[in-house]
Design goal:
Elements: E1 3-7, E2 19-23, H1 24-46, H2 51-58, H3 64-74, H4 122-125, E3 161-165, H5 173-179, E4 185-191, E5 196-201, H6 204-217, E6 219-221, E7 224-230, H7 239-246, E8 252-256, H8 264-271, E9 279-285, E10 288-293, H9 296-307, E11 316-320, H10 362-380
Antiparallel strand pairs: 1-2, 3-5, 3-7, 4-5, 6-7, 8-10, 8-11, 9-10
Length: about 375
């Protein structure tokens, strides 16, 4: 068995042995681990994770404070306003984040509501480099843009989460996103049992504008008036998600030059394993595949997962525009009543105002008196 002799210099390792003999296989394994750690750290930095968080996660036994700080950086938190079941793996419920996830009536690709209790497949997918190219989307009345205009600064602690209450029976994510305009959505969660949905906007200003308009003109989803109120616990945007949004990330994806063999069913099956991912709609337009989801955070994992699959390597997977970011429509103008108005006949100003006092026509008046007398006689008899 080949062996490798390693000599440690005195200093920090003075208490250890001067010479350590290991086998060649063990040495190769250590070198492989070092290279894997270097690649993993590099890709984590590209994905928006800072060096401090990587150092915390690399410790053998991190303290409770370090674990909580790492959990907040990854966006792991208890659900919003008590939605879903608390997982034993999730950090303390005092975290400001919520699990705005949803379930849908669709039988394919729609996951049940649950906690944002863990980030599935992060270590497995983090080694994949993330393409930051920007794509368009089949938004009505808009054109596909190859670049993204400068966006305002994203406030991680903004007031951005609105509760939609008193929903109609069987409301889906597609129904909600079709009714919302005026701002890019960060997350949509439906709790069918309570007939409630939580909608979080990327920018707090957009959320306030939508809330004010909906309260003034009312909001209808599936022909039912919806009540709005601000959520008690607002969605706090994780740092790495804010970083990706600044680079053009959204909740929608587009696969350029999509393989003709791909179908809606196969794409849903490929993304079904991602925890809490809700695939709202899949459209094939001119050789491209547009995928709409309910969450930017989960869309990031979906994109990374697809990039790691050989079946998608011949295609570019880009971010697509959010249809909800279209500007708000003009305020509706109240319609006037269609009932015909009653027109009064014009008065003749030249008429004689003393005509009623005219005493002409004695015969006519006398005839009337006779008639009155006859009526009186009939009454007496």
């Amino acid at each position: 068995m080949a062996s490798v002799q390693t000599q440690f210099l005195p200093g920090a390792h003075a208490r250890g042995p001067a010479d350590v003999c290991i086998s060649q296989a063990e040495y190769d394994s250590l070198v492989k681990i070092v290279r894997q750690y270097a690649r993993l750290s590099q890709n984590l930095l590209r994905g928006g994770i800072d060096e401090g968080t990587i150092a915390i996660l690399s410790n053998e036994e991190p303290s409770a404070e370090e674990r909580q700080a790492a959990a907040q950086e990854y966006g792991i938190a208890s659900p919003l306003n008590g939605q879903g079941n608390q997982s034993s793996k999730a950090p303390s419920s005092s975290s400001p984040r919520h699990a705005s996830r949803g379930d849908s009536s669709s039988s394919r690709g729609h996951r049940n509501a649950g906690n944002w209790d863990e980030v599935d497949s992060f270590s497995e997918n983090a080694s994949m480099s993330i393409d930051s190219s920007i794509g368009g989307a089949p938004v009505a009345g808009s054109t596909v843009l190859s670049t993204t205009p400068p966006s305002p600064q994203i406030d991680r602690q903004a007031t951005r989460t609105i509760h939609l209450c008193n929903l109609a029976e069987g409301v889906t994510h597609a129904d909600i996103t079709a009714a919302i305009r005026g701002g890019q959505l960060l997350d949509v969660y439906i709790k069918h049992r309570d007939r409630l949905a939580s909608v979080s906007f990327v920018y707090g200003e957009d959320a306030k504008a939508f809330y004010a308009r909906a309260r003034h003109y009312d909001l209808y989803i599936k022909n039912k008036r919806v009540e709005l109120k601000w959520a008690d616990r607002q969605y706090t945007l994780p740092g790495h998600v804010a970083h990706k949004i600044g680079g053009g990330a959204s909740r929608n994806l587009v696969i350029r030059n999509c393989d003709p063999n791909h179908t809606e069913e196969t794409i849903r099956e490929d993304l079904e394993h991602i925890h809490n991912l809700v695939v709202i709609q899949v459209d094939f337009i001119k050789g491209d595949c547009f995928i709409r989801t309910s969450s930017i955070h989960n869309a990031m994992f979906a994109r990374t997962c697809m990039l790691s699959r050989a079946k998608y390597r011949g295609s570019r997977i880009q971010w697509a525009a959010d249809e909800c970011a279209q500007p708000l429509a003009q305020a509706p103008i109240p319609r006037r009543s269609s009932a015909p108005s009653v027109k009064t006949p014009p008065t003749n100003r030249m008429a004689n105002r003393f005509q009623l006092l005219e005493l002409g026509g004695d015969e006519r008046f006398g005839g009337d008196d006779d008639a009155d007398d006859d009526d009186s006689d009939d009454t007496l008899h």
